[in-house]
Give the backbone structure.
Amino acid sequence: MGKPGTIYLVGAGPGDADLLTLRAARLIETADLIVHDGLVDASILALARPDARLVSVAKRRAHHTLPQDDINALLVREARAGRDVVRLKGGDPFVFGRGGEEMEAARAAGIPVAVVPGVSAANGAAAAAGIALTHRDASSIVSFVAGQCKGLAEQDWAGLAGKGRTLVIYMGIKTAPQIAEKLMADGLAPDMPVAVIENGARPDMRVLRAPLAGLPDLVEREQVVSPALIVIGEVTAREDVAICALAEEAAR
């Protein structure tokens, strides 16, 4: 058996190809094989060389093209065959991207592995929406939470959101009613400002706002679909956010 290839866990950012790191772009352009998520934009995949093999392992709620163990096995098998493999993920590989599991699988198999960070969905979407996740006058703490994890009702979310804090919830659209109920039960005010960012940093991005108590109605009324982030905190209602929204409307 010859020398194995390297598995690169690469962050593709929130969708805009201009937000790729230089290293990510170079690896995409030279990889033998690209194993990519469904959220990776076509403009990013177009950077691959013509003879590269592209494999989609798109994941949606309750439906995975390949289970995670099979993805791990695919990466290891292809690298053992001497191929350099780019595992291309939306956002950052280590922020709700299962990059840690894939890194562990590669190391257990003795395969070289490298991690290339990407602009996270939270950072990219919030910036595109004009929402500063931290602000000297409004927030000095940011928390990231997965909104579809098991045992949601049993978790203690007290202190994650409120005055001086920002809470960013990934994968929370389907569970928005439970999230709002959970946060209010744990002490968050019903009128706490919330922003929902759908398709962040993409041409079809939408930024929708409501008080926490109105979050479930907002998601249902506007028919919000993934990928979308829920941002909760005073930073979502600042005057500079409103100015940004007006500028977006004027540009359309």
Q: What stands out?
A: The domain at 121-251 is CATH 3.30.950.10 (Methyltransferase, Cobalt-precorrin-4 Transmethylase; Domain 2). The longest strand covers residues 139-146.
